[in-house]
Amino acid sequence: MSSAMTSRAVALRYVGNLLAIVFCIYRTKGAGTTYGNLFVVTNLKVIGNHSDPSRLPGQVEFFLYTAAADGVQVTVTFRNATVQSLIILPGVKNMNQVSANPKLFSFEKDLARKSVYVFKGSGLFGLCVLIMQSYAEDSFETFLAIPVDGWGKLYYLVSLESRVSAQFVTGEHNSTLTVLLRFADRSMVFKYHGISYGTGSNLIVDLPPWRAFSLSNCDDNRLSSSFTGTYVRGTSPFGVISGNCLDGTINVLCDDPMLEREQKGRQSVLVEMLPPLEQYGREFIPVLITGRTSHDYFITVAGHDDVNVTFFNKEDERNDYYLKYRGDSLRITLKGGLGMLKSNKGVLVMYVMRSACFGSKAEVGGPSFCLIVPNELFYHTYTWSTKTSSLPLVVLSYICIVIRVSNIPQLYMDGEFFKADTTWNLVSGAPEWRAGHAMIEQGNHLMKHTSGSPFGLYLYGLGHYSSYMHPAGFITSSINAVCHTSPTVPGDLVDNDCDKRIDEEIEDNKECLFADDDDDGYIDEDLRDTPVGGASGETTAEIQIPGVVNGGWSVWTEWHCQDCLDTRVFRTRDCNNPSPLEGGRNCYGGRLEAKFGQCYTEITCPEDCPLYYWSSNCSKTCFNCMGDCRKNSGVCERCVSGFKSPQNSCTTACEEYEFGPNCEGDCMAKCDDDCFNRVTGECSDSWISFRTLVPALIPIIIVANACIFWGYHKQKQTLLPTGESKPSRSWTLYTAISSEKIREMLAPWKSLETPRVKPFEDMPPDTNLFSSRTTFSTTESQV
Known about the structure:
Blueprint: H1 3-18, E1 36-41, E2 58-65, E3 72-78, E4 81-88, E5 96-100, H2 103-106, E6 111-114, E7 117-134, E8 138-144, E9 152-156, E10 164-169, E11 175-180, E12 190-192, E13 195-197, E14 202-207, E15 212-216, E16 231-247, E17 250-253, E18 256-264, E19 268-273, E20 281-284, E21 297-302, E22 307-313, E23 317-323, E24 329-333, E25 341-353, E26 368-371, E27 381-386, E28 396-404, E29 411-413, E30 416-417, E31 424-426, E32 433-440, E33 443-449, E34 456-462, E35 467-471, E36 560-561, E37 569-572, E38 592-595, E39 613-614, E40 620-621, E41 643-644, E42 652-653, E43 658-659, E44 665-666, H3 667-671, H4 688-719, E45 729-738, H5 739-746, E46 768-778
Domain IgGFc-binding protein N-terminal: 142-461
Pfam family, one: IgGFc_binding
Transmembrane segments: 693-712
């Protein structure tokens, strides 16, 4: 390296130190991160469950977090009225949550001005918005809020096809917006104040301070078209929230991921807060959620004309694309793993997690939007908040880290170095980069790089057919606009040397062979700062207090299946080896871990059983339930008449003196005795005539039969002519039935007797009811 070049770098550094006290003169407006002291947000329209109008359409939660040791005082206002005032504190257990009334977001018109939530803080904090929706089935989505300092004047919108929606928000200044509409389907129009606006139309909106404007097609799904590439310009900085009120992706078959079906999969709200045009980048590593059958994809939107895009897919396979006009977009499917995307001009990249594949339960997750942060805007410190316990689904949360392989050893998370057993995946086209995933517990978290090296961090959660995903944060400085060089101050978050990178230099030895960190011929011309804690990564020695016992983890349980609807395997551990005592520290880390598996793929889950069948493989029934039973437990609301025990599938018949549904009827109260019928509760009196009639008919039937035979014999004797020979053989039937015999015959009916009916009670035991002798004769033919 020439001495002239070194002298120039030293002089530049000297001037920078002299001007540090007046740095605000050179600081680019909006230079900062997604941690700010003023946020203005609203929400996409939440579509409710039309089959159950009484059920609220959804819920909106705001999560606030900070790394400030003393905390931050935050005031929340809505429609100029203070909703809540709170102090947010750092730490894993300090969850700071504000709930919004879903009705405030749900019943606005598609195109209309609407109210906003304003969050003002005494220091820097972050804000994440969680949306829960109950349209047909519960789903959820999140987006990272961008502070007012990170807003711009130029944006391009992104969406999928159905029920598109964009929200424009203002801060303390009004802004006149010009929206140049662009639809994939040219028949698609928006109607505003009686005027139709289609592709190529300019919609002008005057938006006053602290307000929002909704540009949506949420209520009418007959016209479905993406508005990706729609251009929005404002007279002053404003924020944009873009996506779909309700949509999903085209399904692929689980057994053949390359084969798409005609219909869409599970749907959800899809939303992300967009960066302005000046934050569009040139290098990206689109993340890939591992373990899913469906091939996710990403959408790339050109911020300029004549954009060349190169994406390296599996095994460094290079794919080149060309976007002719600004606002043009392309969709690239992630088929073979992680890869680097590069462009010659600034582009916007949005990751789309597909709806779960069709035909198998072996896939978790669902449709979700996620902004892919340019590598140029990676930061070195992230704070975030994760809470999924309020969701109606079982959701496990994860992080995805994108980092240079040489910087992995200095990752620090929640007070200790990041665990080294994470699997780091190669990035095609960028061998110096890696991406790794790890499961995390709910709560507040902090991750940093102890030397100040930038890395990317994404948060995502997977549930059954639902998911969320968003970046943990990023730098919001301009890297895609006219640039003027400026003196460097470590950590100023400004592109001082106009090379489209932010704070990429490490302050090091000028004579060092590798002192030029970005290979541009200059040394320390755009310095990064060092996070609190020092560049060495050293930690403070732990002070031991007598009697205090810090908690320790037990060994992990074996991997096991948990929920039939979840194909993942789980394992757990407990903080009891030893348990914390006398104020000792709780165990650090998570109690639960999960990984992708093949649980329950060969059986029918209870939720898929037909009516009146339940349990795994539908092996149990509940036919005696009044209506279907719960598929996992067999419990039903009520039992049909004649049965009880709804908690046991109504398998118990009514007992003595019980009848009716759930056996709630009382026979004693109705009949003054036990019931004859357990279903209707019919009393025994109604059966007296039948039980007394049968014993009385038996002797009558016997006598009648004897008379018939006797009459037949007499008739045969009468028909014989005089002088004929007498019968050569006679058959004689003697019938004699005693009272004892009758009693034996009537024994089965004794149980049906009532006190008022006692047949044959006074008859002597040896009395014959009748005695008869009947002779039947036949004549043999004479030879």
